[in-house]
């Protein structure tokens, strides 16, 4: 496997190409590639869109049903990669090592998400790659109208579908 594998996220808004950083984020990269190889992301959605912040996907069907995931992974937020515009990072709960399949793409520099220290509040969110093509698609997704769906907020009113995610050789 290349130290910097590239994946293509094909959405109904267009393609997004992302270079993963297997050197600085080996656990997160392997995790993402495993979900990709298993076709897990196919027909999932970007379920949380907050303009000026990030777009999040990789865990829900268009019907807003959460998909069953593999076990959570170790948080690599202390890897030196920052949550800058165009980076991809692992989404998680308040539990530091709780990331599974969900990821987000930063729409702006979100320095407050960076690793600040080895405490639950300061651990941060692990960046594991960056958009190398298709940032205009990311920005278009960021402009969709959103609302509430059950207990979920910031859900696109019109489905933003992840059709496929593929590993480029």
Major sheet: size, sense and barrel closure?
8 strands, antiparallel, barrel
Can you say what the CATH homologous superfamily is?
A: Cyclophilin-like
Average pLDDT number: 97
Strand order of the largest sheet: 1-2-7-5-6-4-3-10
Class by helix and strand content?
mainly beta
Helix content: 10-25%
Describe this structure in words.
The chain is mainly beta and 169 residues long. It is 12% helix and 33% strand. The chain has helices at 26-37, 135-142, and strands at residues 6-11, 14-20, 44-50, 54-57, 87-90, 103-106, 127-133, 146-149, 152-156, 161-168. An 8-stranded antiparallel beta barrel has the order 1-2-7-5-6-4-3-10. Strand 8 and strand 9 (152-156) form a beta hairpin.
What are its keywords?
eight-stranded antiparallel barrel, single chain, mainly beta, two-stranded antiparallel ribbon, 169 residues, Cyclophilin, 2 helices
């Amino acid at each position: 496997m290349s130290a910097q594998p590239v994946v293509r996220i094909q959405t109904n808004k267009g393609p997004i190409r992302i270079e993963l950083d297997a050197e600085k984020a080996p656990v997160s990269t392997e995790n993402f590639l495993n979900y990709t190889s298993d076709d897990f992301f196919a027909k999932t959605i970007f379920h949380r869109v907050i303009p000026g912040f990030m777009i999040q996907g990789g865990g829900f069907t268009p019907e807003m049903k959460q998909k069953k995931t593999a076990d959570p992974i170790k948080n690599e937020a202390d890897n030196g990669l920052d949550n800058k515009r165009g980076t991809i990072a692992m989404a998680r709960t308040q539990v530091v090592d709780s990331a599974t399949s969900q990821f987000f793409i930063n729409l702006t520099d979100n320095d407050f998400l960076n690793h600040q220290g080895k405490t639950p509040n300061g651990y941060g969110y692990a960046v594991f790659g960056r958009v190398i093509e298709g940032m205009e698609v990311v920005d278009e997704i960021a402009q969709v109208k959103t609302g509430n769906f059950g207990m979920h907020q910031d859900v696109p009113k019109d489905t933003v579908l992840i059709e496929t995610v593929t590993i480029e050789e």
